[in-house]
Each structure stands twice: as C-alpha cells, then as structure tokens.
Amino acid sequence: MNMSGRTPRWARGLCLAAALAMPCTLPAQPTGLPSMGSASSDDLSPPIERLLGDAIMEQGRHDPTYIADPDINQYLTALGRGLAAHAPQPLEQRITVFPVRDPQINAFAMPGGYIGVNSGLVVAAQSESELAAVLAHEIGHVMQRHIARGISQQSQSTGILVASMVGALLAALAGQGDLAMGVATFGQAAALDRQLGFSRSAEQEADRAGLQMMRQAGFDTRGMVEMFRRLMNASRLNEGQGGGYASTHPLSIQRMSDIENRVRELAPKAHADSADFWFSRARLGLIQAQSNADRQRMLLSMRTDAKEARGARKAAALYALAWLDWQAKDYTAAGQRLAEARAAGPGAALLDVLAVQLERAQGRDALETAAAAWRRWPRSQGVAIAYAQALQAAGRDQEAVDFLQARARQWPEAADFQKLLAGSLDRLGREVEAREAMARYYEETGALSTAVELLQQARAMSGDFYEQSRLDTRIRTLREDLETRRALLERFKS
C-alpha cells in the first residue's frame, strides 16, 4: 500500500504485459529436471505433480473468487497441516488449504497438495469437527495419490481438460495469457477434480484415512457423520444443479454406513471449537454475501447467534455485525459492537484488525492500537499487516522496513510483506532494494518474468560490483527456473 499516494519509483515505466512477454536468453535444455517416470508409470512423479499444482495456484491467485485473507488462509492451512501430521502414512506433498468465494457446499483437491474450500462449506459447518472431516477426507486423497493416479489414467475427456489447462498455463508463463485464465483457473481445477471420478474404493480409503486423522488430531469423529449427512441433504435439495460436494465425491449409503459403524465403535471424544473457527466462518460469510439478499440472510443469521449463542460463536457474530456497521460508515455502532464482541468471549486477531481499521477510517492514529494488537497476536499475519500499514501511515518507514523484513523471514510464503516492504524502501530512497523486494513479491506469486525485469532495473541502478554480481546470480537463477517450469509443462502436456 503506497501511503504517500504517488507512484513508487520501482513501478514507473514497468508495463506488466511487456514484462511477462520479455524475451530471455535461455538454455535449450535445463539441467536437473525431475523425472516423469516411464510411460508405464502408474502415476505422476511428485515433483511434476507439485509443479502442476504450483502453476495452477500462481494463475489462480488472479481468480476473482480467490480469497486472499491472511488470517483465514493461515487458519485453514494450519488446520489442514495439523490433520496431515496424523496421516496413516507420510505425505509426499505439503498441504496448503485456501478459500474460494462460492456459496455452494463444496471442496476440491488439486495436484501438489493444494485443497480449495468453498466459503459455503465453511459457513454451513456447525462445528470445527465437521470442517475438519472434509479437509481430512481431501487429505486422504492426497495421501493415497488419487489425484496423480487419476490424471495418469485419465479418460479422453479428462485428458482434453488437462491439456487445455496446461496449454493455458504455458501461455501465461510466456506472457500470452490474459485475465480470462485467472477467472477460469479454479473452475477448471474443480472440473478436473469432478472428472477424475474417484472410485468407490478410493472414496472409502479417503474416508477411513480421514477418520483416523481426525481422531488422532483430537477432533470429534461424529463430525464426519454429521457433515456427510448435511452434504447429502444439500445434494438432495440442489438435485440437478450439479457442482455440490456429493456430486464430486458421491456419498453412497454404503459409505455412510461404513463411517457410521466405525464411529459407533469409537468412544465419543468431545472437541472444543477454536475461536479461529468461528471468526473465520463469520468472516467468510461476510465475504460470500455479495447481493443484498445474501447480506440480509447473513444479517439474520448473525443477529440470531449474537442473541442466542455463547462464547466464541457469539463473539464472532458480534464481530460480523460490527464489520457491517464499519462498512456502512456507522463508526459509533461499529465501536459498540466491537466492545460487545470483546466482552462476549475469547479474543481473536480479527477483532483487533477491525479495531485498527475502525480507527483509521475515522482519521485517527491507529499506531498504538496496532502495536498492542501485535503484542497480543505475534503469529497473526493479518495483525502484522495492519501494524506495518499503521507504521507507514505514521511516516515511520525505517521501523516498517525492520518489521517487514523480520516478518518476511517469519513467513517466507506470504508475498504481501514483500510488497509492503518495497513501498517503504522506495519512500526511503532505497531504489535498488525496493525493486529487489518487489521482485521477490512477483517471484513468490509466480510472475517470474516480471521479477527478472525488476531485478534488471535494480542492476542498472547499482554501481556496486558485488551487488551487481549478486543480482546477476538471482537473474540467472530465475531465468533457469522459468525455463525449467516451461520445459516440465511441455513434457507434461505431451
């Protein structure tokens, strides 16, 4: 966020389309390519699978349905990885869970350990164990490598879909894609998940593995039964519309009976839902509600919870009402709701983020509030971003640089810290470092050609031999990485 309102120096003269299309002198055949295995291999090699998943995600972040909310992404991925830590066998892919704005009750697995969760599924879940049940089932598919095997043993229709997706990814890599690719990305990924059509035995394998993960991670296994019943009911209500979870993962009577029998044999194990679950659920409900009708339904639901619920669920509902007041610029009402939410249950990072937003919306200096929030929530990316922005708004860019560099080391996968860092460095006149930070942002979001362009600009500005040598090394590494990705996708497509 550029607090000064002017165009940063690193952005001047940089045309994104031109940067993506920038020709590079690349080796004809990169070395060290992961093996795809023999033609008779049962499945894709894990490096190829991860490459495809990374490529889909890099474009998918441009999808308007992708929800780039740091705290929600943190919560879902932590939940997924916590379950995966108890998988019956080691996973070859690291789990990453991300939310998609879609009211349908659905989730889908992608190559490389990526799992997309529709906002509608989280909002429909009535307990954290129900949400964990769906994630555990999807992780079961990842563990059993059902996605990789399904692609390798693809039908003609699935093959056409995969070829189309890879072709679009190659075009985007070469700078020949457009926003339509981003718009279609997760729709294509969900369609691929649907067309793979996991067998009954594969679904049952995922159920059983998921149930084991749930129990060992401390969740109530009855949540799987309850969620599957909810999904079957939703499927019947939406029969003929397609796209629901039951259509992508058919919930047969046999599957339900198997899970019910297994849960019945286990001693009941209560699980206390985390505050993060209820606040993420409320936040996703707010993001999902696009139309006035959706907003009214959301408002009714939150008012009911604010009146009848207790603890974290009540606090989350009051947070949602405060957020709606803030959006409506009724800052007095928002402040009152926020105070009620704090008194109703355990604290949450999202409450403090809203408190900072509320102060800034009223033209107040939010730095003290943001600093106190960071002391309370040193593991919250959302709070860290709010604190960095407050430092920048107060003109304390050197402090912001020090803070953001530390957070970039703490969360190397979170690209937004690099973008904020570039803004502060630019205002401090550190143009070479600003371009380097912005290059890291583009590198982490998959726009490697743009990252190379920025590093070339940084090199041209530098008069230091050692700095130029270091930048040359980074440019060469990125170019080789770009060509490696292109070559692997070409081989995958063929």
Give a topology summary.
Elements: H1 16-20, H2 46-60, H3 70-84, E1 96-100, E2 107-109, E3 114-118, H4 119-124, H5 128-143, H6 146-152, H7 156-173, H8 179-196, H9 200-216, H10 222-237, H11 245-248, H12 253-265, H13 275-288, H14 292-308, H15 311-327, H16 331-344, H17 349-361, H18 367-376, H19 381-393, H20 397-410, H21 416-427, H22 431-444, H23 448-461, H24 465-493
Parallel strand pairs: 1-3
Antiparallel strand pairs: 2-3
Helix pairs in contact: 2-7, 2-8, 3-5, 5-9, 5-10, 7-8, 7-24, 9-12, 10-12, 13-14, 13-15, 14-15, 15-16, 15-17, 16-17, 17-18, 17-19, 18-19, 19-20, 19-21, 20-21, 21-22, 22-23, 23-24
Description:
Helices cover 67% and strands 3% of the residues. With 494 residues, the chain is an all-alpha fold. Among the domains are: 39-265, no CATH class; 395-494, Serine Threonine Protein Phosphatase 5, Tetratricopeptide repeat (Alpha Horseshoe). Strands 1-3-2 form a 3-stranded mixed sheet, with helices on both faces. Helix 9 runs parallel beside helix 12 (253-265) and helix 19 (381-393) packs parallel to helix 21. The longest helix has 29 residues, at 465-493. The radius of gyration is 24 Å and the shape is globular. The model is unreliable at 1-42, 177-183 and 238-243 (pLDDT under 50).
